[in-house]
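TL;DR need C-alpha cells for one chain.
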Amino acid sequence: MNARAFTLAGRAIRPSTRCLVVPRPLQRRFASSEQQPSHLAQFYKTFTRPVAKVLLMAFFTYQLAYWAWVKLEADEIMAEREAYIAQLEDEIAFYNLPENKGELVRPRPVTEDRLRDMQMQLMLLEKRNAEVLAARAQAEKDGLKGHETSGQKKTAPWWKVW
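>> reply
TL;DR here they are.
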C-alpha cells in the first residue's frame, strides 16, 4: 500500500507529459530533376475520363437519331414510290380495260425497270388517246364544213367537244 501511495503522489507532483500527435499527410519528396505536377495536368487527370464519356454518349446519341431519321425518310420515299406505282397501274388498267376482257392478271414484282416500262406504256397510251381525240375533232370539223350557211361555220357547243 505504501508503494501505491507513492505512485499516486508522484503523479500529482509531476506534470503530465502527454502530447497530442497530429498525423501529417505524407508528402512526396521530389528529387531535383523531378517537378511537382502542374495544376493543368491535375485537371486533365481528373476530368478527362468524364468528358470523354459525355462526348462518346453524345456522339452515339447523335448517330442513333441520325440513323432513325434516315430510316424514316427511306420508308417515306418507299411509300410514296409504291403509291405512285399503284396509281400508274390503275391508270394502265383503266386504259387497257377493254383489252383485258375480265381476265385476271397476276401482278409482277415492282422493280425500277418495271416502273420505267409502266411510265413508257402510260405515255404511249396517253399519246394514242390524244391522237384519237384529235382525229375525232378533225372529223367533226370536216363534217361541219359541209353545213356552212351564210359564210359562218357551225360549231358544236363546248360540252359536246369532249
